[in-house]
Design a protein that fits this description.
Elements lengths: L8 E3 L2 E3 L2 H4 L9 E6 L7 H7 L1 E8 L8 E2 L12 E7 L8 H11 E12 L16 H10 L3 E8 L2 H16 L2 H17 L13 E7 L6
Parallel strand pairs: 3-4, 3-6, 4-5, 6-7
Antiparallel strand pairs: 1-2, 7-9, 8-9
Helix pairs in contact: 5-6
């Protein structure tokens, strides 16, 4: 895919890599009927279908995606074992109870299905509408195991440029340092725009962790 066709989200001068890049490492785990739990306002169904999904259901507490289900992720209106894949990307830091949502993700996922869950580790506070938590690698492992999942992989997401650029920008805003904002805007803009592909070597300073969990085949 040509770079010019990609969409970069931005907060001030801080670029976020396109979802096509961010989600590429988990493409091999996408299949069948997929739930995008916490879909937000962007319909990424076409991307998920390219990865391997043949059906995509969207759900969030607030969204304008046509056909999406409105409601809380801790009480989803789906039967047990309804999905082959569940995606919950950059959502669990914003819910009141991560445990309640994880319990629901496990319930609606079919045995041998994959849950892909991304939660930040080094990000500034950002409410949407609230912001509750951060997770390390060990935290991501524990979160999955505590709710009955097997751990397939845990991958770092984003780069040190994106991490430091976003933290610095939020610091400048919070301090209301207008001169600093003017000085650092072009540096943050360039660094996060041209050094934004996920660095798979980062662990101790990763921005976010992307966990791939598998629901055991409990019938065996």
């Amino acid at each position: 895919m040509a770079v010019s066709s990609l969409s970069y989200a931005r907060v001030g001068p801080v670029h976020f890599q396109p979802l096509e890049w961010e989600l590429a490492p988990i493409a091999e785990f996408v299949s069948g009927r997929l739930l995008n739990a916490g879909c937000g306002y962007r319909d990424i169904g076409p991307l998920l279908r390219r990865f391997g999904a043949n059906e995509v259901a969207n759900m969030d507490i607030e969204t304008n995606i046509p056909g999406a289900i409105l409601g809380s992720l801790d009480a989803m209106p789906f039967p047990e074992n309804d999905f082959d894949t569940v995606l919950c990307n950059a959502v669990l830091e914003h819910v009141g109870s991560a445990d309640a949502v994880m319990k629901e993700l496990f319930r609606v996922l079919r045995p041998n299905g994959h849950a892909i869950v991304a939660i930040p580790f080094l990000q500034p506070y950002h409410k949407s509408p609230r912001d509750f938590r951060r997770y390390t690698v060990e935290g991501m492992e524990s979160l999955g195991l505590d709710h009955g999942f097997e751990i397939v992989a845990i991958k770092p997401v984003h780069t040190i440029a994106q991490t430091l650029g976003w933290i610095l920008w939020e610091h400048l805003l919070e301090r209301n340092t207008v001169l600093g904002q003017r000085i650092f805007w072009p540096l943050i803009w360039a660094a996060t725009r041209y050094m934004c592909r996920s660095d798979q070597k980062l662990i101790g300073t990763a921005n976010t962790f992307q966990a791939i969990y598998r629901k055991p085949n409990v019938a065996l």
